[in-house]
Amino acid sequence: MGILRSLTLLLIALASALSLPATAQEDDPGTALLTNLAEAPNSKVEEALNAIVSSGDPRARGWLEAYGNNRLSQVKNTGQVVVVLNNRGRDWKIANPLTGENMGEMSRRELDRVAINNAIRGQLGGILAMLDLNAPDPDVREASAQDMMGKVDALLVEPLEARLELEESAKVRNRIEEALAIYRVGEGDLDAVEVLAGSLHPRARASLNVAVRGDDPALAAKAKQALSTIEQKLKLNRAAETLYFGLSLGSVLVLAAIGLAITFGVMGVINMAHGELIMLGAYTTWGMQQLLPGQPGLALILSIPAGFMVAATAGIIIERSVIQYLKGRPLETLLATFGISLILQQLVRTVISPQNRTVVTPEWMSGSLVINDALSLTLNRMYVLGFALVVFAALMLIMRRTRLGLEVRAVTQNRNMARSMGIRATRVDIMTFALGSGVAGLAGVALSQLTNVGPNLGQNYIIDSFMVVVFGGVGNLWGTLIAGLSLGTINQLLEPWAGAVLAKIIVLVFIILFIQKRPMGLFPQKGRAAEG
Amino acid sequence: MASSQNWLLRPFQERSTQLFLGVLFTALVVVTFLHLFMPQDSALHVSAYTVTLLGKYLCYALLAVAVDLVWGYLGILSLGHGAFFALGGYAMGMYLMRQIGDRGTYGDPVLPDFMVFLNWDSLPWYWQGFDMAWFAFIMVLLAPGLLALVFGFLAFRSRVTGVYLSIITQALTFALMLAFFRNEMGFGGNNGLTDFRDILGFNLRTDATRLGLFIATGIALAIGYVICRAIVASKLGRVSIACRDAEARTRFLGYRVERVQLFVFVVSAMLAGVAGALYVPQVGIINPSEFSPLFSIEIVVWVALGGRATLYGAVIGAILVNYAKTVFTGVMPDAWLFALGGLFVLVTVFLPKGIAGLLQKRHKTKPDDDTPTRQEATA
Description:
Strand content of chain A: 5-15%
Oligomer: heterodimer
Helix content of chain B: 55-70%
Largest sheet of chain A: 5 strands, antiparallel
Number of domains of chain B: 1
Number of helices of chain A: 23
Strand content of chain B: under 5%
Order of helices and strands of chain B: HHHHHHEEEHHHHEHHHH
Shape of chain B: globular
Shape of chain A: elongated
Radius of gyration of chain A: 34 Å
Number of strands of chain B: 4
Mean pLDDT of chain A: 83
Low-confidence stretches of chain A: 13-23
Order of helices and strands of chain A: HHHHHEEEEEHHHHHHHHHHEEHHHHHHHH
Strand order of the largest sheet of chain A: 4-3-2-1-5
Structural class of chain A: alpha+beta
Strand order of the largest sheet of chain B: 1-4
Helix content of chain A: 55-70%
Distance between the termini of chain A: 101 Å
CATH class of the largest domain in chain A: Mainly Alpha
CATH topology of the largest domain in chain A: ABC transporter involved in vitamin B12 uptake, BtuC
């Protein structure tokens, strides 16, 4: 036993002698600071801590955390302060707090724990936050100031005020002012209420609520006023959030419906398998991620052309094998394509799996954009919204500015006339159907980032998609965009008081009634095309 | 045909109706005989299970006749007839729930089990009266009829037809499905209504009641068929066929197209409701899945396979497809959707007139005065 202990000591002595020349150890101001803390009597602990904080030493955070966790000890013989890494068993693993170097093991009897009392422990959180307030990165400073809200006590006021004087970043200044104001409202300061009136932080509201119930009538009245201001702001933010979610849902609807707006709206082909083409796009994303493991972002980007191609090919096969034989018989087309949708669903169930597959969201798409305390926007929905708009713009360009678009419009308006002018109508049919189907595939790629990828994915969107196209006015791409976005927003507006399912039912009933009032949708086609 | 003045008796003078009724009643008698008088171990014995299964097919056949009436003779492809079927079924289910009385798991004399489970303290107003059979049976007709009346009134008045109407009917049944899935609706939510005991005092679990229900379904099918035939053969039926083939022209000739459409649509919805009401006691459950758009569109395929605008074709199609479904789901469940999907495609592409079309081509005996004229000719 004795041998072992002396051996350890020897090792430690050797280690410290080798790693750090004694002179460097003594020159380091940390040594004095830590020894001061370790040896301070109860009444002087605070002073010792303040000395560490105000030293501006970058290692101070680690020391204080170790101190708060009871991991700071002093070696009895040498008086050196060490960090205990592992205090299980008889021999403890220790490290040098100055360099972070491992110092091996030492018997716990050789060590003297640096004592901490509960009063100090309570303040330590605030002190640590103060430390972060001195960090060079303004984001870290802001986060730490935010962390301090509601935790400020009498001891922290003075350092905070001092910090406020020095602070340059406006964001951080606001946070510190709010944190101070929360404390001052608690103390009955009337002016502090004004500061909090602009804050959306839940702690600010909490402290004002306390003030409203307090004994001071003047303060209570003022706090009440401030609360109503906050309430107004919150309402605005909530409205913005609902709008965002509504637009996001709307963009999903637009994506799902825009391909249908081409095949159904422009060509007049009822494709009930459209939802399954969306599903194929989503499964393409999944397949790409299986092919490129570890690179979900690259796979997702590659899925955009791949999803388009897969769905477009499937569309061409459907058009050539079935739809071309049912030209001019819309109800039969509806039934036949519904049959195809059943076959595709079952195909996915049999070949891949009836279970949902997980598609990974790449890092640059996860997370959210924080606008303020009450409003943050999820990034993946933002990307999908942008993607929907890009797809829409591209389709608009194709229909308006390219030869294909011109031919499509010619064929749909008067097939025979177009053919006699030398347009190959059959080829145009195939191209148009492939385009609409490919866009469905793109919708699938986008949807794979928002919902589960499973055999029923398409089924969930087919009725909604038709509703959007019919609501917007058949044959009108702008109508589809506006209908999709507005239906999504209406749905989200209804959800808080009606619940998700009921909101959906209300929207469906609304569309059913709307169609009865305006059978041609929001933007009916005018002129000759309307009679076709 | 003009010999009879009574429009309701006219169908009995048609050979196709006579043949259909003859086959139907022979089948009813034979099944009853084989069930009752053949010994259990005989190969010819028809078990109670089979009787119920056949009863189910007959319900589907009646539903298919209802769909054929609007699709074949009015040109309206309803993708929401499952909703009327389910509403009739729920009306019957509510009556059967009330008949359970205090024999439920929780033993509440008035409240059905699921309401006790949800801590409801009294019966909602729309459940009142369903303990009386006559009231429930009227509701079987009224609930789907009213829905069809309101929906049809709005749709036909604003001249929504063709594909638009199909999609809206699909949205209607989809919305109803979502609604009935909600527990707050008071129709048992996800689980629907089940655990029935008696109907009109007869125990639902005895073979005799099952046979009785089977025969009742057969008679209902016969009556429904005759009513549809009578409508089709009447002057109103002629106008309805005219609406199908050339809606605008019929309107210009001075007929109130929307009234004809509304009448036929409501009759069809009521027939579907009756089919649902007979279906529920035989299968022992009604839940929101009957509202699913898939079921409604399946009905259309029965009619398409059998042959649109023939009525008997709808019966043949319903029985054939459902028999195939029973076989497939028993032997290889995965293949059923492939088969059903393939059926949709093959029938529409290769067999536009269905099985009835094949039969008619074989024996060109009688000049069928209502051979479907393709609607597209004018579209």
